[in-house]
Amino acid sequence: MTALVPLCSLCRRVRDDNGTGFGQGEWGDVLVYMKRYRLAPADFIFSHTYCPDCCVFYRQLMSYGRGDQSFVDRPAYRPAAGT
Ligand SMILES: [Zn+2]
After folding, report:
1. pTM
2. Ligand 1 centroid to 40 CA: how many Å?
3. Range of the structural domain that residue 26 is part of
């Protein structure tokens, strides 16, 4: 059986919805996910999306592109530890 795993297109973390509602899982490293569930690369396919952290970053980036200079005054985007 092939699992469909949500993957963030920017930071490459995956969401683990096992034991939670759809979309409620924690985001983490894909290798940790594979090890936890003993998956081989052929056991799953990715569904590309954005994690909440990257959504905020992307929204800020788009506002900067529209001339909103406040983006440069905000704290720099930092991926979660372990990514
Ligand atoms: Zn992300």
Report:
1. 0.69
2. 22
3. 3-56
